[in-house]
Design brief:
about 120 residues; rod-shaped
């Protein structure tokens, strides 16, 4: 009986130790996956931001050249800059619904979503 009890305790200890190791490994894999998704999203966003800045510069020059048909060249560049300034102010005023809310949803979804997506799809 004593030998059987010590074997049971050793088995419980071994299984518990293995379970903790597996939980740590699972946490590492989950953190790696979520960090990868977050960094990929950030890098993609930065690339889009840089390309968007180039597009805005080119649009500013196109708008200025369009205004040169009606105004003096120096005044057309000022009007073009004013139009872009209005766009920047509009983006600043709408920053919460356009930037903060989607970013907070993405991060909270990544951090708080404990179930894999495949398990959720099977339940649906």
């Amino acid at each position: 009986m004593k030998e059987n009890l010590s074997d049971t305790i050793k088995s419980i200890y071994t299984n518990g130790k293995r379970w903790i190791e597996l939980e740590i490994e699972y946490a590492k894999l989950t953190a790696t996956e979520k960090l990868t998704v977050l960094l990929t999203t950030l890098i993609f966003g930065m690339v889009c931001l840089l390309l968007g800045m180039v597009v805005l510069i080119l649009l500013g020059f196109a708008l200025a050249s369009f205004f040169t048909q009606f105004l003096a060249p120096w005044l057309s560049f000022i009007c073009s800059a004013g139009a872009l300034l209005v766009l920047i102010i509009a983006l600043f005023l709408l920053r919460k619904p356009l930037l903060e809310n989607p970013i907070s949803r993405l991060i909270s979804k990544l951090i708080l979503d404990l179930k894999p997506e495949e398990d959720e799809q099977k339940q649906s």
